[in-house]
Amino acid sequence: MRSVSIVGIGQTPVGELWDRSARQLAYQAISAAMADAGVERADALFLGNMLSGSLLDQEHLGTLVADFCGFHGIEAAKIEAACASGAAALRIGAMAVASGFHDIVIVAGLEKMTDTVGKDTTAGLATAADAEYEALHGVSFVGLNALIMQRYMYEFDVPLDAFAGFTMNAHQNGANNPHAMFQEPITLQDYLKAPVVATPINIMDSSPVCDGAAALVLVPTEWAKRFTTGHHRGAVQILASASANDTLAVHDRRDPLFLEAAYISSQKVYRQAGIGPDDLDLFELHDAFTIMAALGLEANGFARRGEGWRMAHSGEIGIGGRIPISTMGGLKSRGHPVGATGVYQAVEVVQQLTGTAGANQVRDARLGMAQNIGGSGATIVTHIFGS
Ligand code: COA
What's the pTM? Predict the structure, then answer.
């Protein structure tokens, strides 16, 4: 197996981007990543996307985007794993380069969620759940997470405002990210008076509905110097990659308060990279809802069961803390264009590991982890990157 490196990154701002179509967004991110790497061709495009079929009436998206980018005769495919589509595409791209099937691979993530009305977007997102046993009964995606959060608060005796620190940290970091959807810090008061979406989740616990695209250029590590000579940014190596699944329906889990797939995939990447959680300089976790941030910290070895929420209040997760999370705003503040999110996370880890994260730079960052979750913990893809 060959070692794989990222030599180019690109991203569009995240937001309600009504002036650009899905293909234009993808083109913007992909052309930026290719210019960043200084490459003019690719052997393959793997595109993470979840909702193009249900919201845009457009499948066959990999080839559509490849065509629009001017690629002909290359391999192109959409990769779908609900909200984990972006990281799933990255993993497939990395496997393609590692195996020797391809040398130059573009991995992109694309989602356009705001061209439809809210109820259709909510119904589209619910397709990440089990259609027959969850969605059919009318439970939305926010609703499922609300049930998990309610149970967590009951089991571990957690107060309602315990999660505010995750939101405040995310918005603090998003304020310095020009690509973030929300660029304003928020206060505890803002959190406390936020309208409730599904009890106990309020709008400040929840990532937004938004559009965005991000892209990466992958090559064998032994080629990386060729692309980064005279380049402002060095290459970043993919040190470890793993994916694990859990039951699709939350009610089928032995313990709905433990992200078993996160545990399994992070144990695998720690083994592959020969490190443990304490060696990481930052962790881009999947804070689609604040409860997922708490559960992610627990399953990946940063906090004990039932205690992940305590890290939100301890300053441990800030840029100068023990384990900085959501360093460019996370899903909450940068935004969560679902199938693109895993690629945004990788782009941001590359920024951190190449010293180009601006005001949010984590000092001397060398090792970063990103974790992307599809469904309520059903598909979890984890990567460790090294400078
Ligand atoms: N955080 C902070 N502010 C938010 C926000 C969020 N998550 N979502 C919307 N807003 C703001 C908007 O910017 C807007 O502000 P303005 O009035 O100053 O312009 C206002 O709230 C209303 O926005 P709107 O788009 O009408 O919100 P909405 O009520 O339609 O949607 C949610 C809000 C939370 C219901 C929606 O974002 C949602 O469903 N999120 C979850 C998405 C999801 O499940 N993703 C998959 C997770 S894995």
Answer: 0.98
Tokens of 280: 């990481």
Which residue is catalytic, options 69, 83, 286, 383? 83
250 burial (CB, 10 Å; 0-12 / 13-18 / 19+) is buried
pLDDT in tens, 323-347: 999 999 999 999 999 999 999 999 9
Distance, in Å, from the CA atom of 326 to the CA atom of 308, rounded to the nearest integer, reads 15
* Whether residue 210 lies in the annotated active site: no
The closest-lying atom of ligand 1 relative to the alpha carbon of residue 121 is: 39
Spatial distance between the Cα atoms of 19 and 214, rounded to a whole number of angstroms: 17
Cα(139)–Cα(131) distance, rounded to whole angstroms? 10
Task: Give the pLDDT confidence of 8-43 residue by residue, as tens digits.
Answer: 999 999 999 999 999 999 999 999 999 999 999 999
Tell me the domains of the chain and their CATH numbers. Answer: 4-116+209-228 (3.40.47.10), 118-206+239-386 (3.40.47.10)
Question: How remote is the CA of residue 64 from the centroid of ligand 1, in Å?
Answer: 29
What residues does 217 pair with on adjacent strands?
A: 8, 106
